[in-house]
Structure formats: C-alpha cells, structure tokens
Request: fold
Amino acid sequence: MEKTSHVMLVGEGARQFAIAQQLETVETIAAHPHQSARGKRRLASPRDPAGNHDTIALLVLHANGDIAGGCSTSGLGKKLPGRVGDSPIIGGGLYVDNEVGAAGATGLGENIMRYCGSFMVVEYMRQGMSPEEACRETVRRITRGERSGTALNINFVALDKYGRYGAAGSGKEFPFSVTTQTSSRVIRATASEKRG
Ligand code: ASP
Reply:
C-alpha cells in the first residue's frame, strides 16, 4: 500500500511483486508444524479444533490518540492451497477506524470473514458499546447466523479511542494481553466476565 495504489495483491502476482521488492524468500512449509507433510494429506475441516491456528492481532493506542492495528497469521492448518482467510481482509480479521477504535480476530476465519467480524465490532463501538460489549454482541450475532451445535471457534479483541479494551470469544475462555507504559498482563475473557 506504500509502493502501489493497490490494497491487496495475492498469489503469483504477489510473489513477483515481493521478488521485485527484493524481499527475502523463506520456506514456509518447513516453518509451520501445522503444515507438515503428514498433515497435508488431510484437507482442513472447517470444524477443526482450536489450537490449529496462531493469529496475532495487535491494537495500539498512541499517546496522541491515533489508533493502529496489525494482524499476522499462518492461516488455518491443513488448508487447501489458495485459501484466503480472514486475517488479511480489511474488516474481517482486522479493522481500524481512527475516530472510534479497532478490533482484531482470531479463530476460524471462514466464520469471521463471512460476517465482516472486526468491522462489526468497530461499528458496535461506534453505536456506543464498550469494547467488550461490542465483541460479545458480534459473537452473539455470528452465533445466530450459524447452525446451532457447530463449533464456531471465533474470538475478537477490541480497543477504543478512550483506551478501553475488551475481548470475547465463542469458547469458555479467550486470553489476551494488555500492555501499558507501566505493566503487561494476560487477561482471560470469559463468558461471564465484564470489563472495559
Ligand atoms: N483466523 C485465521 C485464519 O482463519 C487463523 C487463526 O486465527 O490463527 O486464517
């Protein structure tokens, strides 16, 4: 987005662009245990259990009030070649609105991107919800849209312009880290806990 006017490049075109930019080439299959030769024989099930992924969504509030966010993932283990998950999709795995706040997601990308999950969290904050309420409402909304009894495996974390933060997920617990100038700690968002 700094070197071209485009927002996203994928596949062979992205590879060629990376080479032209002289980025380093690395062997990703060897680097990711989820994609071992054995594992690759079996295709991903959309209901694969948690632990099959490792996304990091990072939301930052600068002292001057600006909000920034980033999202990094290896994607879903044993995915089909060519699969695009939620993490690189603006509004799916990450969304930042400097007037309102930011949200990021981890879990089963198919269940996040079909609902523009992170965008939804930010829009709920715009309507006045706290970050935690917004995450919870998004999980509820996606839950309503899916067949009951299926494992959703979705988690959201959010931060607003006032520095309030929160998270919620479809499981019993979703740990997330909060770092300020003076401390760093892991908080476990649970189904019943309120914060923000
Ligand atoms: N959300 C990612 C994906 O579906 C996986 C993850 O959260 O680790 O690609």
About this structure: The two ends are 33 Å apart (CA to CA).
